[in-house]
C-alpha cells in the first residue's frame, strides 16, 4: 500500500469525540467530474474528524487555507484516489421505498450527498504522535444495474497520509443501505478493496458512523497506532456500552446475553407459561438479548412480539428470505398449518390405513383456505401443487428417495439398525462397557434400576453367533440408551391434557454381526411408579410368533419416536465444535426439523457468536476465521423461538415430550454437554465407537469399521484440523502470543462465564494459553421416523377388551401409535422448508475470504484445504460403490452423501454449509 512521506495536518479523534468540537470543511478545488453542477458538494474535504459522530458546518470565519488543508503549490504532493462503492439493490432499503423519504433520498443522490466517506490513516503522525485528520468526501450515485448501485467519491490524498487503515461511513439516506465492496483506486501499488458486506443504518436513526477496516488482519498488539482508538470504539459499539436498556431496534448492532425466557406466553394463556432456561434448576446456554418488556403474568418471562431482534448483520439476506427463513416458515406456520387445521376437523384423527399415508405423496391434502397465487406458491414449489385455474390448492409432498427405492424399508430390522450408523442420528450409538445394564436414577422414586434386558434374552438372539461373554469382551454389543433422561418425564407427559401422547424410558441393544452390520437384540420400555401403579418394564425382541412380532413392531415405533425427539432437542444444540473451530459435523442437510433447532448445533453456538462480536475486533485474525461460519445462525435461532420451539409450536405439538420438549433439552445440556467432549474424534472415543491407534487412519481404530458417518466425518475433520492448525500457527507462532492476546482471552473468558454461565465453574474447561489449545485437537416418511407415539404399548396393563382389540386388529394399534394426520402434515410441511438449501448457501471450502487472499501463506493453506474437500467427494463416491460396505451399499439403499461438501439448491441430502443456516 502507498506510504508517501509529505507533511499533513493532524488532530486527535479521541479528544474530538469527547469534546464534540465542530469540524472544518474543505473543498479540493480540482476540476474532476463529480456529478454535474453539484461539483462543490461532491468535492467537500472536511477536517477535524470526530470519530463516528456527524460533522458540523464550518464556522463562517474559516479561511480558505484552513478549509482546503493545502495550497496550490502543495497540490502536486497529493494522489487522486477514487472510491467506488457497491451498494446492493434491496427490497427494503435503497432504491425501493415509495414513501416521502424516497423523494428525499433521490434529492440527496442528485445533490451528491448519499454517503459521507472518511479515509482513516493507519498510523499516527510520527512527529506529533497525534492521530491524523481523516480525509472526507461525499459519494454520489453514478450507476445502477439489477444487482448493485454504484456510488463514487474522489479524494486528494496527501502523500504523507500513509497507509489507509479504515474508512468511516455515514449514510445520508433515510433508509439503511447494504454495502458490499469499497474499492480505492489510484494508488501506485494497486487498488485497495474493503469488503463490508454489512448494513449501514441511516444517520437519522443513529448518528454513530460505521467503521470498516481494510482486509489486513492484526492481533491487538500489532494494531497500527492510528487504528487503536477505532478498534476499541467499534467493539464498545457492538457491546452497546453506554446505550440505555430497552427494546432493540431493527437497525441496532448490539450483542449481549440473556436467558431463554421468551418461549412461553403466560399473558395469553396461563397454561402457556414456560420455565426460564438458564438457571440453577434448568441450565442452558445464553441467547442474544432483545430487551423486550416482561409479561404482566410472570415478571421473569419476556413478552412476545412479532419478529425477534437479532443484530442487523445477522439477519438473512433477501434471497435467503425468499427461499427460506422467517418469511417462508412464518407463512407455513400461519397459512398452511391453520388451513390444515380447518380441513382436518378432528385434530386427533389418525390414519385409517397405510394407503392414507401414501396419499400424502400421491394425492395430497386439499387446502381451501390458501390463495392460489402469491409468495407462498413461489417459495414452496416442492410442497404446494396448484390445481388448474381454481382457487384450490393441494398440499402434496415429495416422495423420499428411500421410499422410491424400497417402499417397505421402514419395517425392516436391518434398516432399523443401519440408521444408527448412517441415518438421522448417528451420534447416539455407544459401545456396551458395563453389564448388567442399570439405571443411575433413584430407585426410591423410579423403581428397581435393573434392566429388563437380561443375559438370557441376549443369548436367545445372538446364541447362534457367539457366546454372550465373548460378545461383551470382543466389543460386539452396542446400545442407544434414553432410559435415564426420559424416565423422569414419563408421568408428566402422560398427564398432558390437550395432547394425545405417551412416553417411556427406553433402550435399544444391538449386536455387530460378522458381516459388519448391526442386528437388533432388544428394546426395553419402562414406565416409572406413579398414580398408584408400580414400575412397569418389558424387553421386546425380534420374534417368530405373530403376537411377539407385532409387539416388536410397536416397540420400534416407540423407540424411534424417542430417538427422533431427542435428536431434535439434544444433539443439534451442543455442537461438534472444537476450540476456535465451531463447525458442526452433525448432519447438516438432513430433511429433519431437528437439524434446524437442536441443542448441539444451535443453542451452544450462539454464545460464541455473541462473544466473538463483543470481544474480537473485525480485524482480528480469529474473528476473520470464525465469522463466515456464523452466517444466519442467530436469525435461525430467533426464528425457532418465534415459531418452532415456542409454547404451542411445532415441536411441542408434534413430538412426544409435548410441552416439556425444550425443558428436556435443558436437562440434557446440564447432564451431558462438555466442551472438551465435543470434537468428533473425542466423541467417538468416549462413546466407545473408536480407540486411539497411531497406526490407523486419523489415529483412530473404529469399533465398527463400516460406520459411514464416522468414516466420512473423520476425513472432513482432518481437513478442517489441518487448515485451522496452519492458520492459527501462522498468527500465533509462540505460546506467549496466545496468552498475551487480551481480546482473545476476553473472548474465551466471556464464553465460559457468560455464554455458558451455568457451567462456568466446571473443571473441564481448557485454559487458553498456547496455540495448540487454540486450534484444539429419512425423516419425511412418518412410519419410518415417527415423531410421536400417541398410545401406550398394548402389553402395558391391558384390559381384556384392549388385548382382544389388539389381537383381532393389530394394524389399528400401529396406526393409532403414529402421529395424527394433522401432526404428520404439519411436521412434513415444516421439514420441507427447513431442509431446503438456499441458492445463496455458502459451503465449506468453496469461497476464500478476501482477508485470506491477502496473505500468501494463508491463501496457500486454504487452497490445500479446499483441495482436500474435493478429494473427500471422490472418497465418498468410491465408498458408496464398494459392495463390501453394506451399511452404505445394497439393494434399496441410497448412496450415503451426507458429508459431501457441496450441493445444489434445494433438498438434496448432501452439502456441508459454512454455517448453521438451515
TrEMBL record:
This is Lipoxygenase. Its EC number is 1.13.11.-. SMART domains: LH2. Keywords: Dioxygenase, Fatty acid biosynthesis, Fatty acid metabolism, Lipid biosynthesis, Lipid metabolism, Metal-binding, Oxidoreductase, Oxylipin biosynthesis. Residues 1-20, 283-305 are annotated as: Disordered. Plant lipoxygenase may be involved in a number of diverse aspects of plant physiology including growth and development, pest resistance, and senescence or responses to wounding. It holds the Pfam family Lipoxygenase. Residues 217-918 form the Lipoxygenase domain. PROSITE patterns: LIPOXYGENASE_2 (PS00081), LIPOXYGENASE_3 (PS51393), PLAT (PS50095). One of its GO terms (molecular function) is oxidoreductase activity, acting on single donors with incorporation of molecular oxygen, incorporation of two atoms of oxygen. Residues 83-214 form the PLAT domain. Residues 1-11 have a biased composition (Basic residues). The keyword Lipid biosynthesis applies. The keyword Protein biosynthesis does not apply.
Amino acid at each position: 500500500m502507498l506510504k508517501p512521506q509529505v507533511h499533513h495536518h493532524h488532530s486527535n479523534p479521541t479528544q474530538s469525540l469527547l469534546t464534540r468540537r465542530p469540524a472544518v470543511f474543505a473543498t479540493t478545488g480540482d476540476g474532476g467530474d463529480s456529478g454535474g453542477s453539484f461539483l462543490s458538494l461532491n468535492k467537500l474535504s472536511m477536517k477535524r474528524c470526530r470519530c463516528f459522530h456527524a460533522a458540523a458546518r464550518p464556522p463562517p470565519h474559516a479561511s480558505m487555507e484552513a478549509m482546503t488543508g493545502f495550497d496550490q503549490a502543495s497540490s502536486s504532493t497529493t494522489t487522486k484516489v477514487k472510491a467506488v462503492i457497491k451498494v446492493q439493490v434491496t427490497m427494503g432499503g435503497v432504491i425501493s421505498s415509495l414513501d416521502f423519504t424516497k423523494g428525499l433520498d433521490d434529492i440527496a443522490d442528485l445533490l451528491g450527498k448519499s454517503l459521507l466517506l472518511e479515509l482513516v490513516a493507519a498510523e499516527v503522525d510520527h512527529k506529533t504522535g497525534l492521530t491524523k485528520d481523516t480525509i472526507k468526501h461525499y459519494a454520489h450515485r453514478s450507476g445502477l444495474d439489477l444487482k448493485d448501485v454504484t456510488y463514487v467519491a474522489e479524494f486528494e490524498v496527501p502523500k504523507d497520509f500513509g497507509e489507509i487503515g479504515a474508512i468511516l461511513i455515514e449514510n445520508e439516506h433515510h433508509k439503511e443501505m447494504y454495502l458490499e465492496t469499497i474499492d480505492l483506486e489510484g494508488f501506485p501499488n494497486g487498488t485497495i478493496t474493503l469488503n463490508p458486506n454489512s448494513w449501514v443504518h441511516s444517520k437519522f436513526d443513529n448518528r454513530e458512523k460505521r467503521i470498516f477496516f481494510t482486509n489486513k488482519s492484526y492481533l491487538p498488539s500489532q494494531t497500527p497506532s492510528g487504528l487503536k482508538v477505532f478498534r476499541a470504539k467499534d467493539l464498545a459499539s457492538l457491546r452497546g456500552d453506554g446505550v440505555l436498556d430497552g427494546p432493540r431496534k431493527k437497525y441496532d448492532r448490539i450483542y449481549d446475553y440473556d436467558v431463554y425466557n421468551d418461549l412461553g406466553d403466560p399473558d395469553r394463556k396461563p397454561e402457556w407459561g414456560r420455565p426460564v432456561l438458564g438457571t440453577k434448576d434448568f441450565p442452558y446456554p445464553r441467547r442474544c438479548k432483545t430487551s423486550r418488556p416482561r409479561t404482566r403474568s410472570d415478571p421473569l418471562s419476556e413478552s412476545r412480539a412479532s419478529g425477534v431482534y437479532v443484530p442487523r448483520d445477522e439477519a438473512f439476506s433477501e434471497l435467503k428470505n425468499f427461499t427460506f427463513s422467517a418469511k417462508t416458515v412464518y407463512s407455513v406456520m400461519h397459512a398452511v398449518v391453520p388451513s390444515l387445521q380447518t380441513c382436518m376437523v378432528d385434530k386427533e384423527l389418525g390414519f385409517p390405513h397405510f394407503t392414507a399415508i401414501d396419499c400424502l405423496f400421491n394425492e395430497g391434502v386439499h387446502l381451501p383456505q390458501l390463495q392460489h397465487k402469491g409468495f407462498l406458491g413461489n417459495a414452496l414449489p416442492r410442497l404446494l401443487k396448484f390445481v388448474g385455474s381454481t382457487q384450490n390448492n393441494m398440499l402434496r409432498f415429495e416422495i423420499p428417495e428411500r421410499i422410491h427405492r424400497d417402499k417397505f424399508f421402514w419395517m425392516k430390522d436391518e434398516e432399523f439398525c443401519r440408521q444408527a450408523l448412517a441415518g438421522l442420528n448417528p451420534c447416539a450409538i455407544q459401545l456396551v462397557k458395563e453389564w448388567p445394564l442399570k439405571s443411575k436414577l433413584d430407585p426410591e422414586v423410579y423403581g428397581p434400576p435393573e434392566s429388563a434386558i437380561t443375559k438370557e434374552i441376549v443369548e436367545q438372539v445372538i446364541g447362534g453367533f457367539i457366546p454372550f461373554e465373548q460378545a461383551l469382551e470382543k466389543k460386539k454389543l452396542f446400545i442407544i440408551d434414553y432410559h435415564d433422561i426420559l424416565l423422569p418425564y414419563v408421568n408428566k407427559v402422560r398427564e398432558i391434557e390437550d395432547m394425545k401422547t405417551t412416553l417411556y424410558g427406553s433402550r435399544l441393544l444391538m449386536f455387530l454381526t460378522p458381516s459388519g452390520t448391526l442386528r437388533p437384540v432388544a428394546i426395553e420400555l419402562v414406565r416409572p411408579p406413579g398414580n398408584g401403579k408400580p414400575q412397569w418394564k418389558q424387553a421386546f425382541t425380534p420374534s417368530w410368533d405373530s403376537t411377539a412380532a407385532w409387539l416388536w413392531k410397536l416397540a420400534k415405533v416407540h423407540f424411534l419416536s424417542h430417538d427422533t425427539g431427542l435428536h431434535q432437542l439434544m444433539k443439534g444444540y451442543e455442537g461438534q465444535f472444537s476450540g476456535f473451530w465451531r463447525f458442526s459435523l452433525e448432519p447438516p442437510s438432513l430433511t429433519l426439523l431437528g437439524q434446524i433447532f437442536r441443542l448441539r448445533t444451535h443453542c451452544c453456538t450462539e454464545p460464541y457468536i455473541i462473544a466473538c462480536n463483543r470481544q474480537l475486533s473485525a480485524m482480528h485474525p480469529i474473528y476473520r476465521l470464525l465469522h463466515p461460519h456464523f452466517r444466519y445462525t442467530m436469525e435461525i435461532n430467533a426464528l425457532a423461538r418465534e415459531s418452532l420451539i415456542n409454547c404451542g409450536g411445532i415441536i411441542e405439538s408434534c413430538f412426544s415430550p409435548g410441552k416439556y420438549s425444550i425443558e428436556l433439552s435443558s436437562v440434557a445440556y446440564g447432564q451431558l454437554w462438555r466442551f472438551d467432549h465435543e470434537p468428533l474424534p473425542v466423541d467417538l472415543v468416549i462413546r466407545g465407537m473408536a480407540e486411539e491407534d497411531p497406526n490407523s487412519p486419523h489415529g483412530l481404530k473404529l469399533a465398527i469399521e463400516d460406520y459411514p458417518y464416522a468414516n466420512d466425518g473423520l476425513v472432513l475433520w482432518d481437513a478442517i484440523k489441518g487448515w485451522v492448525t496452519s492458520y492459527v500457527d501462522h498468527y500465533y507462532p509462540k505460546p506467549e502470543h496466545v496468552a498475551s492476546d487480551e481480546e482473545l482471552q476476553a473472548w474465551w473468558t466471556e464464553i465460559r462465564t457468560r455464554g455458558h454461565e451455568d457451567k462456568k465453574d466446571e473443571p473441564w474447561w481448557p485454559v487458553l494459553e498456547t496455540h495448540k489449545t487454540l486450534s484444539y485437537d429419512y425423516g419425511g416418511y412418518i412410519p419410518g421416523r415417527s415423531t410421536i407415539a400417541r398410545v401406550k404399548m398394548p402389553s402395558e396393563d391391558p384390559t381384556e377388551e384392549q388385548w382382544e382389540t389388539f389381537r383381532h386388529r393389530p394394524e389399528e394399534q400401529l396406526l393409532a401409535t403414529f402421529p395424527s394426520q394433522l401432526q404428520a402434515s404439519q411436521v412434513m410441511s415444516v421439514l420441507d422448508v427447513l431442509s431446503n438449501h438456499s441458492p445463496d448457501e455458502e459451503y465449506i471450502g468453496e469461497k476464500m475470504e478476501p482477508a485470506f487472499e491477502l496473505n500468501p501463506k494463508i491463501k496457500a493453506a486454504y487452497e490445500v484445504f479446499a483441495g482436500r474437500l474435493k478429494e473427500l467427494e471422490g472418497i465418498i463416491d468410491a465408498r458408496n460403490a464398494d459392495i463390501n460396505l453394506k451399511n452404505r451399499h445394497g439393494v434399496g439403499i441410497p448412496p450415503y452423501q451426507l458429508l459431501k461438501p457441496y450441493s445444489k439448491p434445494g433438498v438434496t441430502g448432501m452439502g456441508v454449509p459454512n454455517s448453521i443456516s438451515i
